[in-house]
Each structure stands twice: as structure tokens, then as C-alpha cells.
């Protein structure tokens, strides 16, 4: 609570971030979801800023081959039986 008093601007940033994501806003409506909301925010930050979406230093031909394999794996997924 002391941090909230020392840096009220940070609280506004957090509120703005939550309001930009409809699922987080909806999650705030349920009791005892504060930890889950924080986990979701940290996970999204890691996904967006830490894990790279582009492979650096890879040749364009190899990147195209990897993309083709990923796409074909996603399109050929069948639901598990029983």
C-alpha cells in the first residue's frame, strides 16, 4: 500500500493497461482474481517484450521453411479422440 501512496501514477498506468484488455477487465469483476490478473499481465509482458517473434540471424530460406512447417502443423491438427 505504501507504493501506491508513493507512486500514484503507476496505479493509473496499471488501470489503463487493464482497461485496454477486455478479458482482464472482465476478470476484475470476479472475487479473488487479483493474483490471476497480475500473472496474466506479467505473462503478456514476457510474451510481447522478451520472447522474440522473429528469429534473428537466420537465412530467409530457412525462415520460410520453418514457417511452412509451423503452418502445416497447425493446419493438420485433429482433435483427440475420446
Quick structural summary:
The chain is mainly alpha-helical. It is 68% helix and 0% strand.
Description:
By secondary structure, the chain is an all-alpha fold. The chain has one domain. It is built from 5 helices and no strands. The protein has helices at residues 2-6, 8-19, 22-27, 34-50, 60-75. The model has no long low-confidence stretch (mean pLDDT 81).
Helical content class: 55-70%
Tally of helical segments: 5
Q: Span between N and C termini?
A: 49 Å
* Average pLDDT reading: 81
Strand content: under 5%
| Total tally of structural domains | 1
The low-confidence runs, each spanning 5 or more residues with pLDDT under 50, are none
Biggest sheet, open or closed, and with what strands and sense? Answer: none
H and E order: HHHHH
Q: Tell me the overall shape.
A: elongated
DSSP summary, beta strand count: 0
Radius of gyration: 20 Å
What class, by secondary structure content?
Answer: mainly alpha
What are its keywords?
82 residues, mainly alpha
Task: Present the secondary structure layout.
Blueprint: H1 2-6, H2 8-19, H3 22-27, H4 34-50, H5 60-75
Amino acid at each position: 500500500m505504501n507504493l501506491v501512496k508513493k507512486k500514484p501514477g503507476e496505479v493509473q498506468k496499471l488501470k489503463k493497461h487493464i482497461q485496454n484488455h477486455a478479458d482482464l477487465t472482465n476478470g476484475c469483476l470476479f472475487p479473488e482474481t487479483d493474483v490471476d490478473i497480475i500473472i496474466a499481465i506479467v505473462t503478456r509482458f514476457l510474451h510481447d517484450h522478451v520472447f522474440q517473434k522473429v528469429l534473428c540471424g537466420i537465412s530467409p530460406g530457412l525462415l520460410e521453411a520453418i514457417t511452412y512447417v509451423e503452418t502445416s502443423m497447425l493446419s493438420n491438427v485433429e482433435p483427440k479422440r475420446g
